[in-house]
Amino acid sequence: MKALVIGGTGPTGPFVLDGLLKRGYEVTILHRGTHEIDLPSEVEHLHGDPHFIETLNETLGTRTFDIVIVMYGRLRYVAEVIRERTERLICAGGAAVYRRWLDPRQNLADSSYLIPENALLVTSPEPDGLETDTFFRFSNLLAKTELVVMENHHLGFYSATICRFPMIYGPRQLIPGEWSIIRRILDGRKRLIVPDGGLTIESRGYSENMAHGLLLCVDHPEESAGQVYNVADEDALSLKDWIETISGVMDYEFELVDMPAKVATPSVPYGMAIRPFAKKTGQLHHRVLDLRKIRAKLGYRDIFKAICGLKKTVQYYLDNPPDRGGETEQRLNDRFDYDAEDKLISEYEKSLDKLSTIFPEDTWRHPYPHPDKPNVKRDQRGR
Questions:
Q1: What is the pLDDT of residue 364?
Q2: Are 61 and 55 in contact (CB under 8 A)?
Q3: CA distance 194 to 62
Q4: What is the rounded distance in angstroms from the CA atom of residue 302 to the CA atom of residue 297?
Q5: pLDDT given at position 271
Q6: Does a structural domain hold residue 223?
Q7: What does the pLDDT read at residue 297?
Q8: What is the CATH number of the domain that holds 202?
Q9: Which residues of the chain have pLDDT under 70?
Q10: How many domains does the chain have?
Q11: What is the pLDDT of residue 264?
Q12: Which residues, 6+ apart, have CB-to-CB distance to 92 below 8 Å?
């Protein structure tokens, strides 16, 4: 049996490749060759650009495969190129296809905070009531690409499965949000800005767990045919949990400075996916994927619990720290401008002092009557 993995050198890829080899596949990966990593010698490398039809055709030639797993590239073009080259296609997509993932206003219409596979997708490149948004345009393309994949499935070109991932963490992540916290600890920062108390909860996925989800689709071809699955860690942590776990691994303690999301600019990269609406609406919201389908149908369970995966990730970046000001930090979009952070904290705390004088300080008393004498209509405070 022959398997093609498009991508495969990121945080999830090596675990997928290893799983395919253990299942008896002859494994080939197609990638650009810009991020080579140590892989088993029996894995064949094809170097080509998976973002264009012509380069995909040129790289693949006349090759065919029993299964193709797409983890990188421009999926709508891959889906066209491999129509005559495979009978099975498994795609690693993204949770950003959901409107509720991007727009906190969508949660108001649903009493459940969980996002199931049949939730509304981003069907327009522009969010209602807001200016054109880069994230919505990208998410709209993701949703359109899923339609192309499933249309080919229904036309019989191949049996397709889509896995919708949240932000993935683990070794070799191109945008390691954990580094925003790790570096501040290494730099001796004592105070850390967090939005909304760090209470926002978000699904994420440890790399080996995400690979396990994909491989379950490999193992269950009939059950997964034509299906879409949410795949994420079973435990969804809050931003505060994330910060405290990383701090605990490094035996460090921050003073967390709570600010509204609209002004807590430096907090955006702290281990959480970028929020396009935080600056525009001042709102953060819980983003938790409903995993009941993949748990019930394919038997998904975490290989590593989230806390354990995060600890392993932190240790990796302590052993392999990104270059200061280098490519990783530029992708992370964290300025590490500590002078500006200190100024923001100072000005914010001054504003709180000023605002606290607007209303007189109240002494709290329980609203129910608590008489100190029997048989009175009202107690000593007139309640």
A1: 81
A2: no
A3: 53
A4: 15
A5: 46
A6: yes
A7: 98
A8: 3.40.50.720
A9: 105-111, 125-134, 266-283
A10: 1
A11: 83
A12: 7, 12, 69, 70, 71, 163, 165, 210, 214
SS3 of 356, please? coil
301 domain-assigned: yes
- pLDDT of 274 reads 46
Alpha helices in the chain (DSSP H): 13-22, 53-60, 75-81, 99-102, 134-154, 178-186, 207-219, 221-224, 239-249, 278-281, 292-298, 306-319, 327-332, 338-355
CB burial string 281-310: b at 16+ within 10 A, e below: bebbbbbbbbbebbeeebebebbbebbebb
Q: Which domain holds residue 266?
A: 87-343
User: What pLDDT is stored for residue 355 in this prediction?
Assistant: 93
295, two tokens: 């748990």
Q: In terms of C-beta density within 10 A (0-12 exposed, 13-18 middle, 19 or more buried), how is residue 37 classed?
A: exposed
List, for residues 337-375, the tens digit of each pLDDT value: 999 999 999 999 999 999 989 988 878 888 898 888 898
Element (H, E) at 201: strand 201-202
In a domain, 39, yes or no: no
CA 240 vs CA 61, 108, 313, 342: distances in Å: 50, 24, 17, 20
Neighbours of 63 (CB within 10 A): 14
In a domain, 50, yes or no: no
